[in-house]
Design a protein that fits this description.
The complex is a heterotrimer. Chain B has eight helices and one strand. In chain C, the strands form eleven sheets. Chain C has a seven-stranded mixed beta sheet, sandwiched between helices. A six-stranded mixed β-barrel of chain C has the order 21-25-22-24-23-26. Chain C is built from 29 helices and 39 strands. Chain C is of the alpha/beta class. The chains are: A mainly alpha, B mainly alpha, C alpha/beta. Chains A and C meet through helix 5 and helix 10 of A and strand 29, helix 25, helix 26 and strand 34 of C. Strand 1 of chain B pairs antiparallel with strand 1 of chain C.
Chain lengths: ~450, ~190, ~1000
């Protein structure tokens, strides 16, 4: 705030003090699309290797059987579902930042929402794979989709897993569309600078954007409509995912708090992931002028808020377990804190509950490196949150004689790590193929340019 | 024009999905292998056994009851493959008007004690339990599942009338209403799958 | 196959079977697409007693142990696929033990010999029977005093072997690794009778076991298990009998006692005599010639020796005298120390003084279990070592493994120029043999048995010999070899021999022999027992008796108990994967050995569970992981037999350790039996540890009312539930608290079926038709685990191996949970151990059903919780959501690991599950369908009560399980479920299970449940 000079602003947005003309914007942002540096190639190579690892691990599992995981009875779900929920969570803040903040006319979204949306799309693409990885008979997984068949058989609409199918696919469709639509004007911008094959590509996917008034008019309508459509999904998807657990009778799962608790956690992890991703982009592509501490400050605050909600959820879970007087429920949560998986639980509490407390301090909120480190902590913590929920609840259930221990196998680890590479792979391609920052919207918040004779401004 | 690309893409995706589903639905065929002794017949059977000649009702055909040979159909889950002695029971008297060399094989089997390696034509999936006797005693005609066998010289599982390995075929019949308007046979999964 | 005529079409039958091996039993989920064309081979001449697709049953006799239970064998298209107890048979009475079920795996075991083998150098070469027999004949004709070492066998074969050995002028040595010789010898000394006394456990009201593990080992485990269950059941005629166990370690038998008096090893005699003295009081003359012995003993002395309080012994004596009829059992095969015979004599005196002879214990109607002395085999070893004999034949025994290493049998045996083995499958002894004449499995061969005086049973072949193995039953081999030696052309087969044996015994006054014979084959046995006579007189011993406490080889500080395994006996069953993976009834450990040690002892030595320790005796040492067990005295450690095989086959070798390597080769003075409890050991941690392959998650039920109990005193006071664990009041309260659907008071009542609660459920109950349900009486269940193996055999449940079990992936559909409530090794105290067979509860309101996305699991109109394998996608959500944790998942294609011809045992009526699908108990739905089909064929009649019998109920020796249609008010299931002891596991969850458990009844007050904070 202080470092932002007050002035005439569109939609009360923050003007970027170091950016003056539309031309600069195009130049700076689209520079990202030009010949990549070594760093990018190196990262891409790592990611590609990881993708290979990912699919070979999956292939190995299909060949040998799901037994190559460490799963057992009683722990029938493990790293796969943990990672699934983790990525669904990540997928959240994208749409949140773009759609909800858009509807609320939030002043700081333009610079980050493109990256955030991309993250959303790729995160859902990653998450969507894990239910498939996890089932015992992948080749029959299509039975979860309702389709008319000669057997007169339908899926069980009472099962939260079927709800998942709908929730995930819907969310993916909408956020992908939203992402694409928002990008069209910028693709057009890129098109006009690009040459050769790229130009062809951009020509196709920019759907003939010319930036005429009528196009802008329809664009605005469609965009706000999609934003309105996407907003409830942000809440619904993770609520549905949380019901995979809340609808079960497993002590530690069966709780009414789960939906809001999961949504908060999702936004928490999502925003953290945005920070994790945007910091390097900012550095590599020299977009400091566009991603100011102001933006990071705002995201940090969002993290802080959601981390408090999540911490509250943790505490209320423990409290209610004690307060319920339900012996089995109590044992379950006691076991969480001090049982075989105490380390996971405490990792979760420290990373999600205590580390973010530092965000109370302005100096930390304004220190990009600090934020980067904290965001990594949060990512780790949120993965462990899901691990704690899935594994510690299952391994000590109702029947003491059937208690057991679960040890993740190498294959599971490979698939978990590989999923990050798979995600990174797409994200890296994105940074090369699409403007990582919304050019058009940035321009909206710049002072209107004086018309030049070339009249190239859109 | 560019929109067509989109539409085309979506359409092909759908087609792919449908294709997968279809492949899964498609009844399995019984492939015919190479390793069969004796001359190959269209059916791959070791003996050119004409069902029509035995069970057919046309003039010159013998109009035999299916269960004369498939002897356990009404009291067992298995219909029963006729023992060679059953064939021999008639054929030691009947040399076989059309092709006696086939009948000779029966005699050979009886003498050597080596059974005739019939090729299996009709087969339901192994996770399906089909009790023949329940269906026979419910008054079903064999033809309702096996087709007009008495008119076929060579049986063929690819014959469209053989719906036995397609669950829709079973369910369709089971859920037909009886006089009381209720399904005439249970469609509970564990009636067949256990 | 009751007649010989089917034997000649063997060839075709075998071919036919080969096909069924592929098409019938090979049924798998993946089987939809068959690569190569499938062949159907018809019978050339159909056997008249076989209809394809219909089971044929034969009676025969189990050859698993000396008990010789009667069997019913179910065959399909000529393959034996399931064995069950013969209800007509006085020994099994319909029950069968886990070992009995596992004999089926020996029949199809891939480690059986493919045919007669001759050793050439280190290699074995298969030869024809012609060559093999002529070779044996040749060697015998020139043999210097040939020997034949034989194990347990039926009367006919026994007779034949005697004739044969006599014919060749040889020596016969009978040998049984674990035998009741001391008991038999004691009976001979005290009463001059032969054989093992018979017990009437069922009618005893007060049962005392001096370290006698009668439901696991000994003369007749199944019968005794049944007796114990009936005797100790609260439904027993009269009153619930009380069972006290005196011993230094709680075996499975001990775990079923109401009270445990942890006496020092070897002090049974002292305690028994002290009790006798107390009972006799001032009139020691009742002990006849032993009255002077009584005077020598009194509670002080005994208490001193045994390490228990004097009062405990007085109290015991008074109960024993007052609560007639009573029964005391002397130390059995699990506790053979150098004073075993004396101890058994002491117990006989006690029984005599208490007037039990002729009431609960019978000496004049012996069981034919006892085997000859270990001393004889020791002599044989010396003979072999000194090269006295140049041909030694071994039948039905594996001395190389089952004799202590110290005995040096292997070395001596190696001296013998020509070693012959009749073993049908590989074992340590046959491994050394020069000539192997593989015997047939008892399900392929003729034979007979006489388990009790007056009971005769015929063992008939139930199928053609398994075609993979050119086996020939020893009876036939001996006959033909005898012919070769004598040069006579007598063509008699052993079948004729057995028939002849019975014809000669047949009294024509009872009608035609042929009819009698057919009847014998049909019913499986002939019972001509006469009324037992009354009491016998004590005879003065002709040998000097010492009742002193034996001393144990030092310098160890912990006495080592070497006992037969409830699963493997002395190791003869170790090569059965079913038994290897059957959790040990006591430790719940599979596949490997463990050393039982008291937690306090371990704590003092800084030993933790799973630590690998070196156990050292003066005679040997071995390394084995420790399992902490509160049911063993602090000065004792225990090892089970059956582990550490080296040449028995793929499932036995290198699994665990052989406890016999730690003990010396000493025989007990009077009976000459092998002394197993003989040495002390030192236990030193190696520093290494391993995870025990156990199926036990926790032995504490945390007051969760999983297996509650009710005090005898509180029975009949329905309503006041203070002392009754998990009374209905409490449950309803919990249902309120836990936020479950509140259920009206009357609804929990098991009589109110179909349950109101099932309407809260998702599936409308069919208003007509059956509602299948089960009741399991925990007051009867002894945890013997026979049901586990029976289920595995019936339902094609695969075994997964040690590594998978370590990962927590055991597949068994039945889990016998074992919870300790009260086990105190420091003093005589009430014992409270709960066994609970946990199976799918077939909930009316099942959590698994709602979460399955594809209806692979759902509720059938008949109340079954169905699992449709071919619909299962494998999300495992159902397993997560099952509070009973009874769902098991196929993590791999476990059935791929089943080698030919073991897969011939598969039940063709049950789908073999493939990789990636969930499975669980189905209430044996295939049996329900079979009966319903039969009923439909018989004019659509109703299914009768108890016509559908699941495998577990059928095999349960304790009769603890009842299955039926609970909607029928007159059905047994409905009657049993109406008991006030009925409860359901985790009832507060309102899952409305179809399995009703009946609470265990204890004599002591049970601790109330529910933590009060």
């Amino acid at each position: 705030m202080s470092l932002v000079p007050e002035g005439p602003t569109a939609r009360g947005a923050v003007p970027h003090p170091d950016v003056h003309t539309y031309d600069e914007v195009n130049r700076d942002v689209l520079r990202a699309l030009e010949t990549p540096g070594k760093g990018w190639w190196a990262l891409l190579a790592v990611a590609a290797a990881g993708v290979v690892l990912f699919f070979s691990a999956w292939g190995w599992q299909l060949y040998k059987g799901i037994g190559v995981s460490g799963l057992n009875s009683p722990v029938g779900w493990g790293v796969y579902i943990t990672t699934f929920v983790f990525w669904v969570g990540i997928a959240h803040s994208g749409t949140l930042i773009s759609a909800i903040l858009f509807l609320f006319r939030s002043p700081w979204r333009q610079s980050i929402y493109r990256a955030a949306e991309a993250m959303t799309v790729f995160a859902v693409m990653t998450a969507g794979l894990f239910p498939l990885i996890h089932v015992g008979r992948l080749w029959h997984a299509y039975w979860l989709i309702p389709y008319p068949n000669s057997r007169f058989l339908w899926p069980n609409f009472k099962s939260p897993l079927v709800w998942d199918v709908f929730a995930i696919t819907t969310y993916f469709t909408v956020s992908a569309t939203f992402f694409y639509l928002g990008a069209i004007p910028d693709i057009a911008a890129a098109r006009d600078r690009a040459t050769g094959l790229r130009k062809k590509l951009y020509q196709v996917i920019s759907l003939g954007w010319r930036g005429t008034d009528s196009q802008w008019h329809h664009f605005g309508k469609a965009y706000i409509f999609l934003a309105a459509l996407a907003t409830p999904l942000v809440l619904s998807v993770h609520s549905v995912v949380s019901w995979d657990f809340a609808m079960a009778i497993v002590p530690g799962w069966h709780a009414t708090i789960f939906a809001p608790y999961f949504v908060a956690g999702a936004i928490f992890s999502g925003v953290a992931m945005v920070i994790t991703l945007v910091v390097p982009i900012r550095k590599i592509f020299g977009l400091e002028a566009y991603l100011t501490t102001k933006h990071f400050d705002a995201m940090a605050k969002l993290c802080l808020l959601t981390s408090l909600i999540v911490l509250y959820a943790y505490l209320s879970e423990f409290f209610l377990a004690w307060y319920s007087g339900e012996e089995i429920e109590r044992t379950a949560f006691w076991n969480r804190l001090f049982g075989d998986y105490w380390w996971a639980t405490w990792t979760m509490l420290v990373c999600n509950g205590f580390v973010p407390i530092m965000l109370w301090f302005r100096r930390i909120r304004h220190s990009i490196p600090a934020l980067f480190v904290i965001s990594i902590f949060i990512n780790i913590g949120m993965w462990f949150e899901r691990y704690v929920i899935v594994v510690t609840s299952l391994h000590h259930e109702y029947e003491p004689f059937a208690w057991g221990i679960y040890r993740p196998s190498l294959t599971e680890m490979a698939l978990m790590v590989g999923s990050f590479c798979w995600f990174g792979f797409w994200f890296l391609l994105f940074t090369r193929l699409l403007p990582p920052i919304a050019i058009a919207e940035l321009k909206e918040v710049l002072p209107a340019p004086t018309r030049k004779k070339t009249g190239e401004a859109y | 024009m560019r929109k067509h690309w989109l539409i085309g893409g979506l359409a092909s995706l759908l087609a792919l999905a449908a294709g997968v589903a279809f492949i899964q639905e498609e009844p399995q065929e019984t492939p015919v292998s190479e390793d069969i002794a004796e001359p190959e017949y269209p059916s791959g059977q070791p003996i050119a056994f004409p069902h029509d000649q035995h069970a057919g009702s046309q003039p010159g055909q013998n109009n035999m009851d299916c269960q004369y040979c498939h002897y356990s159909a009404e009291r067992s889950v298995d219909a029963g493959i006729p023992p060679v002695s059953a064939c021999w029971g008639c054929h030691q008297a009947i040399p076989g008007s059309n092709n006696p060399e086939e009948v000779a094989k029966i005699q050979q089997s009886i003498q050597t004690g080596v059974p005739i390696p019939w090729v299996r034509i009709y087969k339901v999936a192994d996770h399906v339990h089909f009790p023949h006797m329940r269906h026979v005693n419910a008054g079903l005609e064999c033809q309702q599942c096996h087709g007009e066998v008495q008119e076929m010289q060579v049986l063929n599982s690819r014959d469209p009338v053989w719906g036995g390995d397609n669950m829709g075929w079973c369910v369709e019949c089971h859920r037909q209403p009886d006089d009381a308007g209720k399904p005439q046979a249970s469609t509970d999964c564990t009636v067949c799958h256990y | 196959m009751a007649e010989n005529k089917n034997m000649q079409d063997g060839i075709k039958r075998r071919d036919f079977l080969k096909v069924l091996g592929v098409s019938g039993a090979g049924a798998t989920l993946t089987g939809c697409s068959t690569e190569e064309v499938e062949r159907l081979l018809p019978y050339v001449i159909p056997p008249d007693d076989i209809t394809p697709g219909v089971s044929t049953w034969y009676t025969t006799v189990c050859d698993g142990c000396s008990a010789r239970c009667g069997m019913w064998v179910r065959t399909r298209e000529g393959r034996a696929i399931k064995v069950e107890g013969n209800p007509n048979h006085p020994v099994s009475q319909g029950g069968l033990c886990a070992k009995g079920h596992a004999t089926l795996q020996h029949l199809y075991h891939p480690d059986r010999f493919p045919g007669p083998m001759v050793r050439e150098g280190s290699e074995l070469r298969q030869v024809t029977w012609e060559e093999a027999e002529s070779l044996l004949a040749a060697r015998l004709s020139s043999a210097q005093n040939p020997m034949l070492i034989s194990g347990q066998m039926g009367p006919s074969l026994n007779e034949l072997v005697d004739e044969f050995v006599e014919g060749i002028g040889g020596i016969r040595v009978s040998y049984d690794a674990i035998s009741d010789a001391p008991l038999a010898e004691a009976a001979r000394i005290v009463y001059g009778t032969a054989g093992i006394p018979q017990y009437d456990i069922e009618n005893a009201r007060f049962l005392l076991s001096f370290g006698n593990d009668f439901i696991e080992t000994g003369s007749s485990p199944v019968a005794h298990n049944k007796g114990l269950a009936r005797m100790s059941s609260v439904d027993a005629a009269g009153s619930k009998g009380r069972f006290v166990y005196l011993g230094s370690r709680l075996s499975l038998t001990g775990l079923n006692a109401d009270k445990w008096i942890p006496i020092r090893p070897g002090t049974e005699a002292a305690v028994a005599l002290a009790m006798a003295a107390v009972i006799a009081g001032d009139d020691p003359e009742v002990a006849g010639p032993y009255s002077n012995v009584l005077q020598a003993f009194n509670p002080q002395v005994a208490a001193q020796a045994a390490g228990v309080t004097e009062d405990a012994i007085f109290e015991l004596a008074e109960d024993f005298a007052s609560q007639a009829p009573t029964l005391a059992l002397g130390p059995g095969v699990g506790a053979h120390h150098s004073g075993a015979t004396a101890a058994n004599i002491a117990v006989m005196i006690l029984n005599h003084v208490a007037g039990n002879v002729g009431r609960t214990v019978f000496y004049d109607a012996p069981m034919n279990g006892a085997m000859s002395a270990y001393a004889d085999i020791e002599a044989t070893v010396n003979a072999m070592a000194s090269g006295e004999s140049d041909v030694v034949m071994v039948h039905g025994a594996n001395p190389v493994y089952s004799m202590p290493l110290q005995a040096g049998f292997a070395e001596a045996f190696a001296q013998v120029p020509f070693k012959v083995s009749f073993a049908s499958a590989l074992d340590e002894t046959s491994e050394m043999a020069d000539l192997i004449l593989p015997d047939q499995h008892f399900l392929e061969a003729w034979g007979d048995s006489s388990p009790l005086a007056g009971v005769v049973a015929v063992q008939q072949p139930v199928m053609q010999p398994v075609p993979h193995f050119e086996s020939k039953q020893t009876g036939d081999v001996l006959l033909s070899v005898a012919n070769r030696l004598s040069g006579e052309g007598d063509a008699a087969t052993f079948y004729d021999y057995v028939r002849e044996h019975h014809r000669s015994a047949h009294d024509d006054a009872d009608g035609d022999f042929e009819d009698a014979w057919q009847e014998l084959l049909r019913t499986g046995m002939a019972d001509t027992r006469r009324e037992e006579a009354g009491a016998l007189e004590l005879q003065s011993p002709e040998v000097a008796l010492s009742f002193e406490v034996p001393t144990f080889d030092l310098p160890g500080d912990l006495t080592l108990l070497v006992h037969p395994s409830p699963r493997f006996g002395a190791g003869e069953f170790s090569n059965s994967p079913w038994l290897q993976e059957l959790p040990d009834p006591v430790s719940k450990i599979v596949w490997h050995s463990w050393l039982e040690m008291n937690p306090h002892t371990a704590e003092l030595r800084g030993i933790r569970e799973g630590d690998i320790v070196t156990v050292t005796s003066p005679h040997g040492s071995l390394e084995v992981p420790v399992w902490l067990y509160p049911g063993i005295r602090e000065d004792v450690v225990a090892l089970a037999m059956g582990g550490g095989h080296t040449g028995m086959g793929r499932y036995a070798d290198d699994k665990g350790v052989n406890a016999l390597n730690l003990i010396p080769s000493t025989s007990e003075q009077l009976s000459g039996a092998l002394v197993t409890t003989v040495t002390a050991v030192t236990v030193i941690p190696t520093g290494e540890k391993r995870r025990l392959a156990t199926v036990e998650g926790s032995s504490d039920q945390y007051d969760r009312m999983i297996a509650p109990a009710v005090a005898l005193a509180d029975l009949g006071h329905a309503g006041d539930d203070e002392h009754e664990e998990g009374g209905h009041e409490e449950l309803r309260e919990l249902q309120g608290v836990g936020g479950f659907i509140p259920v009206p008071a009357d609804e929990g009542a098991p009589t109110a079926f179909p349950l109101e609660g099932s309407r809260h459920g998702l599936y409308a109950e069919a208003q007509e038709g059956p509602r299948w349900a089960m009741a399991i009486d925990l007051d009867k269940c002894t945890g013997c685990s026979a049901c586990v193996t029976a289920c595995q055999a019936e339902n094609n449940v695969p075994w997964v191996g040690e590594e998978q079990v370590l990962m927590g992936r055991e597949m068994s559909w039945v889990r016998i949970e074992r919870y300790y409530e009260q086990v105190d090794a420091t003093q005589a105290a009430d014992l409270d151990v709960r066994f609970l067979p946990m199976i799918c509860q077939h909930c009316g309101n099942a959590p698994c059903e709602t979460v399955c996305p594809v209806f692979a699991t759902y509720h059938t109109p008949e109340g079954l919780n169905a699992q449709v394998y071919n619909r299962c996608v494998g999300t495992r959500y159902c397993a997560n959501n099952c509070p009973y944790k009874v769902r098991v998942f196929n993590w791999y294609d476990y059935t791929d690991a089943v080698p030919e011809p073991l897969n011939w045992q598969w039940n063709p009526d049950v789908t073999v599950r493939a990789n990636g699908v969930m499975e669980k108990c189905s209430f044996c739905v295939q049996r329900i369908r079979e009966v319903q089909n039969r009923a439909a064929l018989e004019g659509g009649r109703e299914v009768r009560d108890h016509e559908v019998v699941p495998a577990c109920e059928q095999s349960c020796p304790a009769e603890a399980i009842v299955f039926g249609n609970i909607r029928d008010p007159n059905a047994r299931i409905t009657q049993v479920s109406a008991s006030e002891r009925t409860y359901r596991v985790l009832e507060p969850l309102n899952t409305q299970p179809a399995v009703n458990y009946l609470k265990k009844v204890t004599f002591h007050e049970v601790a109330s449940v529910g933590h009060e904070e």
